[in-house]
């Protein structure tokens, strides 16, 4: 799968956050978006996911231009910085919500959930509520939930911000396994060491412009 971004521009009021953004993402790579706070990194990620509108340009999935403010949840997924797990639902209920909403057969959804949860070592927590999980466990639940529709590219917003070094290491391993299974990733992070460890490419937003470096 390929995401093509052409001449994208985003403003808040009279302030232009970024403009003339031309990029291509594919489902065989991990791309990191870096830069100082206020550069519009998370906003860019939300535009790709249809959670934010933009002023000009296009976002296309495999050549199909998506209307502004829309996306295809079966092609691109999102793991939010705050995870956004529903507190009154168990882990199992949180994970099954999206596939059942999108009309996936319950038995198929449950089998997919069990497989993914076991792969990410979270299955034993399936009957717990989010408040009873550690930050790392909540993140793995959020990753499983985002993978339930089997997107080809998965976005992460600041995935290491609340994790200790051991959990960050496990996250990097998880991302590596997802890539091996054919899932591309777009990651917003302030953690330079983490970016260098996981990325094929690193993009920098600076004063409304973009520069790119290839990771050796």
Automatic annotation (TrEMBL):
Keywords: ATP-binding, Nucleotide-binding, Transport. InterPro entries: AAA+_ATPase, ABC_SmlMolc_Importer, ABC_transporter-like_ATP-bd, P-loop_NTPase. One of its GO terms (molecular function) is ATP binding. The keyword Transcription does not apply. The keyword Cell inner membrane does not apply. Gene3D superfamilies: P-loop containing nucleotide triphosphate hydrolases. Residues 3-216 form the ABC transporter domain. This is ATP-binding cassette domain-containing protein. It comes from Aedoeadaptatus acetigenes.
């Amino acid at each position: 799968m390929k995401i093509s971004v052409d001449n994208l521009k985003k403003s808040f009021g009279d302030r232009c956050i970024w403009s003339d953004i031309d990029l291509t993402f594919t489902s065989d790579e991990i791309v990191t978006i870096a830069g100082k706070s206020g550069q519009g990194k998370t906003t860019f990620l939300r535009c790709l996911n249809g959670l934010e509108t933009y002023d000009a340009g296009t976002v296309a999935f495999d050549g199909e231009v998506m209307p502004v403010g829309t996306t295809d949840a079966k092609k691109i997924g999102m793991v939010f910085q705050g995870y956004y797990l529903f507190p009154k639902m168990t882990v199992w209920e949180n994970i099954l919500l999206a596939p059942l909403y999108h009309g996936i057969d319950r038995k198929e959804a449950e089998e997919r959930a069990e497989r993914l949860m076991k792969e990410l070592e979270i299955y034993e927590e399936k009957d717990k509520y989010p408040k009873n999980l550690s930050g790392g466990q909540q993140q793995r639940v959020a990753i499983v939930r985002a993978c339930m529709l089997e997107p080809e590219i998965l976005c992460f917003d600041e995935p290491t911000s609340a994790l200790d070094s051991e959990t960050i290491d496990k996250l990097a391993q998880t991302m590596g396994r997802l890539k091996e299974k054919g899932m591309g990733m777009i990651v917003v992070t302030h953690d330079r060491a983490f970016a260098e460890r996981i990325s094929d490419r690193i993009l920098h937003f600076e004063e409304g412009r973009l520069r790119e470096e290839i990771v050796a």
